[in-house]
Write a structure and sequence with these properties.
This protein is mainly alpha-helical and 155 residues long. 41% of the residues lie in helices and 8% in strands.
């Protein structure tokens, strides 16, 4: 199945080339609005244009991406690719189910599901737990809290 597994190394060799990782500075941008545009349709044998209406489900999906912590670092190229994916989403929710595979592949690249995030090595941190760990590190506390069930095992 396409879209599974690690990308090939490109040199016919094994292993990773992480030692030569190129790091660039990129500025995140706010999510753009879904665009207004016209589509060509046929009415009574005549070709005409009409305004494209985004399905309500796609508008909800677009808002979900705006609210996602995953999108906080998106650049303009990320949003552009996701906007193209929004059009596939709209067509899918309008009945064009043959687009399901392509839609799945595209949203996977953005970490849409837990499996996708695991493959991309992305993990959500619970804010309260992360703050507690940070505060304990700053205070030099290394042992688990008194209510921690691991204390019984360490006994």
């Amino acid at each position: 199945m396409a879209g599974r597994g690690p990308a090939p190394t490109g040199r016919g060799g094994r292993g990773s080339n992480n030692g030569n990782l190129r790091v660039i500075v990129a500025e995140s941008v706010d999510q753009p609005d879904l665009p207004d545009f016209d589509v060509q349709i046929e009415i009574d044998g005549e070709m005409t244009y009409q305004s494209f209406d985004w399905p309500a489900r796609t508008r909800e999906w677009w808002q979900m991406w705006a609210d996602s912590p995953l999108s906080k670092e998106f650049t303009s190229t990320d949003w552009s690719e996701l906007m193209d994916t929004a059009l596939l989403h709209a067509k899918f929710w309008s009945g064009d189910t043959k687009l399901a595979g392509e839609l799945r592949l595209r949203v996977a690249k953005f970490g849409a599901t837990p499996e996708d995030r695991a493959r991309l090595k992305i993990q959500f941190a619970a804010a309260d737990e992360a703050e507690d760990r940070r505060d304990r590190r700053k205070q030099g506390v290394r042992k688990p809290d008194g209510d921690d069930p691991r204390l019984k095992l360490m006994g």
